[in-house]
Amino acid sequence: MKKVLAVLLVLAMVFCFAACGKKDEGKQEETYELAFITDVGQLMDGSFNQGTWEGVENYAKANGKTCKYYQPANGSEATDDDRIAAMRAAVDNGAKVVVCAGFMQGGALETVAKENPEVAFVFIDGWAMGLDNVAGIAFKEEQCGYLAGYAAVKEGFDKLGFSGGGGGTNPACCRYGYGFVQGANAAAAEMGKTVEVNYTWQYGETFSASPELKPLMDGWFANGTQIVFAAGGQICVPIFQSAEENNAKTIGVDVDQSSQSASVITSALKGLSAATEWAIQKYYDGKFAEIANTDISLGAAENAVGLPTATWSLQNWTVAEYEALLGKIVDGTVSVDNTLYENDAIASVSFSNATVSYK
């Protein structure tokens, strides 16, 4: 027994010496090669932030890289100073590639990118800045918005709603909404009928689960609206809740949101995760210059937008019919206007078979 204790004591001393020796040598700060700066809202928002972060995380896991996310201080009230602080923290922690999500990051990103020309910045839902270390990647949301609106009308709904985030100034949400109405109008024209669309930017400016949205949606559903396209991060939460309580339906956005609510019949998807991984791979392949300082817009032709056929619950419009329409968008037979109609400017657009009420 004494021999056993002696052995244990020696081993304990060895472990203690090793640990203390490591500490004495000075433990280095842990570094993270890949960084993600969130947009407003929560990281795991089941939408835009989550889809982009999954791209960073997936790449890191598949390629043996370290990654970390940073949320700017003050949440939905974050300022450029808050965003700059988060980006600088990422760089200080060793980031080689910094992925920033959301158009509101633009000013801060330009500042930090100029300070750190050796770091690659991927700007999701962004644009080219005249900088060789920034890749701006946007999407043709109007195309998947079109598919969602078309699907809703083909499914049999004729009283639709669109609730958008960003207060009508977010380019991506503007494209989603405008495409949605175009798709609904096209399907209605083919079916020889007219559809009604409630269209609003109210209470979605900060992309948060605004408590005012719930009674607004309750009113829409009570007055006959059958399905609402919720396009704006966490604004989906009160919209999904209202739809469930009123036995109505919804359409999700950015990622497949069918698991978040039984009301979701389909979602307008854009390839956030895939595009993020693609851009990061460009950096590690030594080809980041191919996408830097260039306006990149990914759509149906790049397999970057669409609807999730594996999980949708549509009964009256088939996957084959969807794929045929998608193919027409890819080859240009069907053209979806991508003009940005901010705020109420879309009210000036005339639709042949859709009556749009702007709230």
Summarize the structure.
With about 350 residues, the protein is an alpha/beta fold. Helix content is about 40%, strand content about 20%.
Largest sheet: 7 strands, mixed
For the record, what CATH class of the largest domain applies?
A: Alpha Beta
CATH superfamily of the largest domain: Response regulator
Regions with little confidence, pLDDT below 50 for 5+ residues:
1-27
How far the N terminus sits from the C terminus, by CA atoms, comes to 83 Å
- Tell me the CATH architecture of the largest domain: 3-Layer(aba) Sandwich
**Into how many domains do the coordinates divide?**
2
Name the assembly state. single chain
Number of helices: 10
| Strand residue content | 15-25%
Question: Helix proportion of residues, in percent?
Answer: 40-55%
Label the structural class.
alpha/beta
Strand order of the largest sheet: 12-10-9-8-6-7-13
Give the overall silhouette: globular
Count the E strands. Answer: 13
